[in-house]
Each structure stands twice: as C-alpha cells, then as structure tokens.
Amino acid sequence: MQSVEKTSAMVRRDRRSVLYRKLNRYKYVYLLMLPAILLTFVLAYLPTLGIVMAFQDYDIIKGIGGSPFVGFDNFIKIFSTPKFLHAIKNTVTYSGVGILFGTWTPIILALLINEITATRFKKLVQTISYLPHFLSWVSVIGILYGIFAINGSFNDIMVAIFGDSYERTNILTDPDNFLGLVFWSNQWKNIGWSSIVYLAAIVGVDQSLYEAATVDGCNKFRQIIHITIPGIFPTIAVLFIMNISGLLASNFEQVFGLQNIFTQEKTEVISTLVYRQGILNGEYSLTTAFGLANGIVSFLLVYTTNLISKKLSGIGLW
Amino acid sequence: MKKSIGEKIFDKFNIIIMAFLCVIFIYPYLNQVAISLNDGADTMLGGITIFPRKFTWVNYEAIIKNQDILRAFVLTALVALIHTGFTVVICLGAAYGAHKKDMPFRNAIIWFLLIPGYIPVGAIPVFILYRHLHLLNNVLVFIIPGMFTFYNMVVIRSYLDGLPDGLEEAAYVEGANEMQILFKIILPLCMPVLATIALWTIVGSWNSWTPTLYYVNDRKLYQLQYVIMQLIKQSETIQKMTTEAAITGTDVSNVQPTSESIKSAAIIFSTLPIVMSYPFLQKYFVKGITVGAVKG
C-alpha cells in the first residue's frame, strides 16, 4: 500500500478547506449572533470611551474631543468633598449589613422549607415567599408607605402592644431608620427568591448520607450541620462572592424609592448621588470619575474574593 | 423511621413559623387591596387591615379614567411585549451560536460578549451615549437596551447543551442546514427555557421605571411604574408641606393631596398583570434560575 505523506502545503490546504467548509456551514449562525454582537459593541463597549470624561473637565457643548484634560483633579475633588465620602460610607454600610446579616437568611429559610413534610403546604409557602420578588420596587415602596403611615397598620400594632401612650410616627421620615428599612425591605422582597437556589442545592445532596447518619444515631440538627451545609457549600461560596462584589453597589431603585425629603440628605448612596449630581446637576466629569472609581474597586473586590476563595476551598467564579 | 419527640416538636414549630412568614409576605399586599377598595375619606380615619370598611369601586374608576395612568399602562404593556419579543430572539440566536462548539471563532465571540460585564462604566457615559444616539425622550430607550444580556444567553445555552447529543449532527448529515436545524428541531425543544426568559424579561420591563427617570421627561412617554412612583412621592411632599404649614401658619387648603385610597388603587392596578398571571406561570419563573445558577 502506498504511504500517504502530506507535504505541509497540502496540510495547510486541507485545513483551509475545512475552515471554509465550516464557515459555509455556519454562515447564517454568525448572522444569528450579529445582533448580540452589535448591541454589545454599541451599548457596552462604546460607553467605555466615556471613561475619559473622568479625566476631563467635560463640557457638554465641546464634547469629549474638545473638553480640557485635567488629570486626576476630579478624583482629588471627590475624596475631599464630604458629600461624596458620606455617600461611600452609606453605600458600604447598607451593603455591608445586607451581606453580613442577609447572606445566611435565605439559607435558613431554605433549610426550614426543606423540612416541611406536607407537600401542598410546602408548595404554598414557596409560592407565597416568591411573590414579593415580582413586585416592582415602586409597588413595594408604596406598600411600605401604606403600612408605616401615621394611621397605618404598623402604628396600629404598636399602639395595641404599648398602649395609648405610644406616639404614632411614620418611621420612613427618620433618617436613622433608613438602614433598617433598606435591610428589612430587601429581605421581605428577596428572601424567598434567594432561597430557591439554596433549596435546589439542598435537594441535590446525596440522600444516602442522611440515612447513614441516622443509623449512626445522628439527630436531624447535627445532620444539617454536618451533611447539608458542607454539601451546599459550593453554592454558598459562589453566591457569597457574587454578593461581595455588590459591596459598593446599592439597589438604586430601592434606595431612591425609600428616600424622601425628610431623609434624602443623610441617606445618599453612590448611585443616587451620581444620579443627582450627574444627571440632574450636569456635573458629568465629577460623577463619571466617581462611578469609575466605584467600578474599579468593585472589580478588585470580586477578583480578590474569588482568589481567596479558590486558595481556601478550590471554589471560585472562574 | 420514627421521629424523636424533639423532631416532632420542631415540625410543629416549623409549621407555625412558616405560617407566620406567609402572613408577613401577604398581609402588606392585602392591606393595600383593602385600602384601594375603601372609601377615601373613611381611609383617613385609619385602622384598615385586610377588609375594606366602606366598600367602593370609586378609586379604581378614578384610576382607569386617568389619562396619564391609562396612557402609561398601554405604553408600558406594548413596550414590554416588543422588548421581550426581540430579547428572546436575539438571546436565542446568540446562544445557538455559543452552543455550536465546532463553529470557527466561537470562543472569540463569546469573550467579546462577556468582557463588558467586567468593565466598570457608570451611568454618565451611558447617558451621554444615549444622547448622541437620540435615545433620550425616545420610546426606543425602553426597548433597545437590554435586548441582549450575557446571562440570558448562558441560561439558554446551558439548556441547549443539555439536549441529546447528536441530534443536530444527525440532521446535518441528512442534509439539513443550520437554520433548518434551529427552526425545525431545536426551537420546539427549547420552548420551556424560552418561556422562562420571556417571563423574566416581560416582568422586568413591566416593573421598570429608572429609564424614565434618567432618560425621559416627556410626560407622554412615562412608564407606568414611574407614574405610580410620582403619585407616591407627591403625597409625601404634600405631607411635608402640610406639616410645615401647620408650624408657619400658611394656608395650604388649596393643595389637593391624592387620597390614600386612590394611591393604593393605582399601586394594585399596576401589579395586576403580574399577580394575576403569577399562579399559572410560577413554575416557568423558577425553573430558569436553577439552570442559570447551577451551570452558569
């Protein structure tokens, strides 16, 4: 039999014809991906050019091309203006509390739901717990104003518990209550939805481990601690990393909605300040710089947390 | 397996806790429904829980007849449908390509689509861009942004990867081209995940109001939730005015606050499409998130 040796030119020709064949096969699929590529380019890549604005004294008439370059002036200004520093502090506080106390609440809920034996009641609880997630923050804010109004249910309950000497107030008008409101309204709206992922992970844990533990005399509580939690740890870790990246983010819709004339000044966060100073007041350069600094720190947070997590447990987002 | 007494007590306790939680989740909403069905003047007296004291449809009548609300309702509904339609098509197209492991330059394209998610941009450059693109005060600003998201693509692609291997290859060998494979074979099979994406998108679009805040000041183009938000904020403004007026002694009797009941009717009205379809569509909402979280 003749030995078939290919010269390198023949191999290149073969590879090229395979490539052309594939390109021909998938030609319409490229077209299918085109809208996504165009949208991403225009709506996600182009704005990155705008980052330059952070280093300019941007004049909307002169545009990016014509505005003078000012180096790091905007950044210096930001970190010496109390308003901006206060917004950073608020953002970190609200998010920090949310992460610290709110990471494990959906896990506990998922564990409790998992223990319900009556299937129809279980489904009912789940369905009801997801519902607030699908309401808009506007609806939730409206509902909150209704509950905490002077003559609303919250005050009614307080009077019922503490008697007529209790002074009715609308707690939404006190800036000191804002942290609590942000935390609890977020829990109310999202704890059910967040528990879904954990519930799915819990169900995925090998059932035979529980049977073995029962035979060994382990009670349910210890089973949860020693089997369930370690079993869903990858899920917990991944979600925790994703949450940490949100430390410098706030839920704009929630915070902006909750703010009112009584509380606005003391409760600004980064995103609402960018909106007010930037969009409303037109201080584009300053707020772009602010947003850029914010974004970079957030990215570093995710990257570092991911690195640490991989070093400690081998689990990471990438 | 017999349960210990401790475990039986825990089970009972758990049911009580869960029931209590359910009340907490539902009561506030029912409270609003009751207020919306209650006579406005009577509501001011307070004390409404989940039943209206003086039942009336008057508040809903006022809402439905209100031009601003009606127009926003229709606009938001149309925008939601159009936006969702395009979103599903575009994300499916991208996911189909991402799913084809054999396609040249596939990885480069995926990286191209992924990277922007990690670049911090900020709201202002986006605002300036929209200005240049004439998207300000333009209904397209509710439709075009968000038509493609990497997350949606990943969810659909995970689903496609989970379909039986060799289906597409077999069809190709039989002489079908990729488009025919997509429409005749893949599309019917991935209806469930497309339904999930469609539902998430339509709910997101229905509930959205920040684009109006940022990019629109033409009253005719307001999204529904934005109109509701203004209603809510307005009564807080008036409350402050009345409190301050009481201190300074100015006359504010000509200021008409929106009654609590009308506000509640507006809020409930804006949630109706979602709340009414929720029981039937719940499973579709839920399925997608596990696919996305576990595989993505």
Strands, helices and their partners?
The complex is a heterodimer of chains A (318) and B (296).
Chain A: H1 8-25, H2 27-49, H3 63-66, H4 73-80, H5 82-102, H6 105-114, H7 119-134, H8 137-148, H9 153-162, H10 178-203, H11 207-215, H12 220-231, H13 233-244, H14 252-258, H15 270-280, H16 284-313
Chain B: H1 5-36, H2 40-43, H3 58-65, H4 67-99, H5 106-114, H6 123-132, H7 140-143, H8 150-161, H9 167-173, H10 178-189, H11 191-207, H12 210-215, H13 224-248, H14 260-295
Helix pairs in contact in B: 1-14, 3-14, 4-8, 4-11, 4-13, 8-14, 9-10, 11-14, 13-14
Task: Estimate the mean pLDDT confidence of chain B.
Answer: 87
Low-confidence stretches of chain A are none
From the alpha carbons, calculate the radius of gyration of chain A and give it in angstroms: 27 Å
Query: What's the β-strand tally of chain A?
Result: 0
The run of helices and strands of chain B is HHHHHHHHHHHHHH
The gross shape of chain B turns out to be globular
Outline the low-pLDDT stretches of chain B.
none
Helix content of chain B: over 70%
Backbone shape of chain A: flat
On the 0-100 scale, what is the average pLDDT of chain A?
89
